[in-house]
Amino acid sequence: MFKSKKKAAEADKKAPAKKEPTDLKYLGGWLMAKMAFGGAARLRSNAEEVNKLNVFPVPDGDTGDNMRMTIESGIAALENLDTDDLAEVMRVFSHGMLLGARGNSGVILSQLFAGIAKGFEGSDSADPATLGRALEEGVKQAYSSVMTPTEGTILTVAREAVEYAVKSITPASTIRSFFADLVKAMHESLERTPEILTVLKEAGVVDSGGAGLLYIIEGFNSVLNGEEVPEEAIQTSAVSTAPKTAFELAAAFGPDSKMEFGYCTELMIQLMNSKTDINSFDVEALKAFLGSVGNSVVAFKTDSIVKIHVHTFTPEKVFAYCHSFGEFISVKVENMSLQHTEIEAKEEEAPAPKKYGIVAVTNGPGIESLYRELGTDEIVQGGQTQNPSTNDFLDAFSRVNAEHIYVFPNNGNILMAAQQAANIYDKSTVHVIPSKNIGTGYVAISSADMTNDDPNAIEEEMKAAMLTVTAGYVSPSIRDAEMNGVTINKGDTIGIIEKKIVLADPDKGCAAYRLAVKLLEDPGKFMLTVFRGKDATEAEEAVLKQCLEENCPSAEVYFIDGGQDIYPYIFVAE
Length: 574
Prior knowledge:
Blueprint: H1 3-14, E1 27-28, H2 29-51, H3 63-78, H4 86-100, H5 103-119, E2 125-126, H6 128-144, H7 154-167, H8 175-196, H9 198-203, H10 208-224, H11 246-251, E3 263-271, H12 283-293, E4 294-302, E5 305-312, H13 315-323, E6 326-335, H14 336-349, E7 354-362, H15 365-373, E8 378-381, H16 390-399, E9 402-408, H17 415-424, E10 429-432, H18 438-447, H19 455-466, E11 470-476, E12 481-483, E13 486-488, E14 493-497, E15 500-505, H20 508-520, E16 527-532, H21 538-551, E17 556-561, E18 569-573
Parallel strand pairs: 7-8, 7-9, 9-10, 16-17
Antiparallel strand pairs: 1-2, 3-5, 3-6, 4-5, 11-14, 11-18, 12-13, 14-15, 16-18
Helix pairs in contact: 1-2, 2-3, 2-4, 2-10, 3-4, 3-5, 3-10, 4-5, 5-6, 5-17, 6-7, 7-8, 7-10, 8-10, 16-17, 18-19, 20-21
């Protein structure tokens, strides 16, 4: 159980008889943390249902999993937080979500909560009006995170629900009534999404991102109304690396080391009535004392809790002074000389950066091998149903010692996470090349002149090369459907060119051959690269190869054992 949730539970036990649900006028940090936990748990239990709300009837739906892992990264960030300050809880929660964001839906979700956190800045608690303004800020930031916002998606569901809930605020409103209005409007907005987006109506589904958001807010609302969430309901995984052990730290600071930089000292103190007058406690006097024994002073009081941060050579003086007016809830002291030594060591060990580096997302051992042969420095494992997080990209960037890094997401649903990581990373100039599949990325890298001294010219060259490529996929169908004039039966193999279903066939080999011919019908296309996935056999490939040699003799066809998931064949026509 993370500390905020535990603290709230303890507070509940100590509190007098609870008031009626209509009496909750303010939202604090501990309650917000509990609600976040409940929202993550509700989404986790319904993630597979969200995955199935896939426009195409293919087994690559991953919206539910992406949103689940995004919010669970936020939950993991809260595990060691112990404060009732709403702004601080939302700051930590949203930052965890930003780092853990996966897929376009996860990135939009993380941006929504980043905006909400921005709206809560300076607020240790929130009434319905403050809550409404924060959510409006969240919607604004979510929209701004998308280059071309599409209505009928999670954006619409968030916007319409917040607009309704804000308009419904009255002097009698409570936090519970606000969330009740929010859930009601969100459900109604989600049901309208097929009327806004034709592709949803054609597929017979509502928007998957909007559905994921509804489950989260329903979880928030359930906790508000007293539902307890079992600890095992979700599993979290932090995105940060584990701290060094005491033995590792001791090895870097020996008996002859010099203490040059002091101690980073952080305390959380519970003010005690027996030691001080809590209501008139003088934070400015505390800051003055801390300034006399150190620097980088931060101190603030929330209710009867005081949190301080100071860099000092004498942390014992800080302990003694602070102990005179309260008891310690938490204490953290770090030797900054160790940190400085580690930084210096890394700087000394690091070679001079090269000018250009490449990071690419791949799925399948054959495809990874091909990309490495093309000069890719770092591979991020992922693809459809396995979208890497923002933090996965940041880790990859940190391993590439280059002034300019070119990133190939190779999937439209990974593009926003790559862009979000590029915006955060500040040690290199990161160029995100909007490759939508492994084929376009492959062609872009192959065509680039990496000896060019102009990094922007290389980027434009890569983007221009991708315009000459048309990609196609074959995939099994998981349900009956009628799309783009094509009748699809469950179990058929369907052929997709870019984002359009163009054929369906009961036989996988026939579907693959027909799709390849369609791609080569374009008069500008004469070269076809075929990536064989793990769900296609060498014998099936041999039959396809023979059919193409006999019926498309002027085409240059190359086969690569890609080993990718989901799609038995990926075609790249040039």
